[in-house]
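Worked problem 6 (solution included).
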Amino acid sequence: MSSSFRGLGIGISAIFANQRALDVTGHNISNVNTPGYTRQMISNSSSMYQKLGQSGNGKPMQLGYGVDVQEIRQYRDEFLDKKFKKESTELGYWESRLLSIEELETVFSDNSEDGLQAVMNNFWNSWEQLSKPTGGLVARSMVKENAIAFIETVKNMDSLMVNFRRSKDREIIENIGRINDIAKKVAGLNLEISKIESHGVTANDLRDERNHLIDELSKKAKIQVLEGSTINIALEGRLLVEGSRYEQISTIPDTDNGGFVQLAWKGSNEELELSGGSIKSLVESRDIVVKNYREKLNEFVKGIASEVNAIHITGYGVGDTPPALPTHRYFFVNALTGDESDIDLSTIAFNPDLNDFDNIASAEEAFNNEDNRVALKISELRLNDYFSDDNYETDLTERKFNFDEFYRNLISDLGNKGQEASISVDAQKLLVDQIEYRRQSVSAVSMDEEMSNLIKYEHSYNAAARIVNVMDEMLEIIVNKIGLVGR
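Solution. The predicted structure is:
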């Protein structure tokens, strides 16, 4: 026969179960704004039953013992989690690419009078002014000032691109440091979760913290998450995290690349090349994108120096008149050697011999101060083709762009790459946002739902408490009042 206290135990089990449910609901509400938190739900089941024998018609009878709390589980969709990590890698790549292109666009910005296009226009215009009969000392001084402005502008652009590479190098080092931190933390969480769950308890909050770290990691590099009894993370075919063990990535100066860092696995120094994520984009921006535009600008400078020098060396200045001997001078020189050899973006300089304005050649014949044909030829250089798609060409058959067209093509190409990156970011962000919306619809805390649960569990708790009160009153009657008649 069932004990008289059995009903009391059933009521108490209901109180405990609803108390746990209220605790979980409160935990959800308190973490509604916690990044990476996954809502939790209590899972109940009926307690083991007791056989009471058979009914009058021969059917077996059972009596339940109340309710048991089975687990406190999370609401997660593993498929959406994996898809989110995969698409986050692409988003991280394109976001970093877009930021790099926008930074380069400021280097090549031509929206002001200080831009290279405006400086080149002034340079050509000053030669055109010198070619006129009215060209004189003022025109010569403008030729010099605009030449120096051109040199300073391209050197400043070169300096900005060098600083751009250094900035990306620092970002790479910082991001690798963050990857190492995440790997160490995930390994530590794996160990802690294993210890806790070995006792049959699910470490939900620690799992949330681990998943949030892995989400962050997936944006920086292309990873593969291997789930089993614990979480393992593979990076480019090698385990970055294996249970409680983890690898670290080192950044080693590369002497073949100007001292900028290259990635390697710490300990073995095996080279590591990332195939996705924001760090891959940073490496590409540092070593490929900016290098490509610097090389094009370098070709532009080499073309200017070569063509202007080729004409200027044939001319004569005002000072080249009797009794002086006629002198041929280069307009641009190599700052390191002082001659016309190997002039490029980093070495171009204004010939100091031309600081005397009279030495600037404008005449094609010596001893003729009214001859400005050299100045006219230099001013007309802007109209001739000297470039292929990427290079300054000495082969006449390969030439198809003049100076202005070549530089505009460079700017246009940079703008197209920026537009491509912007479109890719928008498309990828839309995809990631859609996945995150679906993921949050499953995992995120809904205040409306939690408040509804709060009311539901409160009423259940009160009902369970009422059962205990009723059973208590019944037991009091049985214990204290039955059997008093006749005393």
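Discussion: The longest helix spans residues 137-197.
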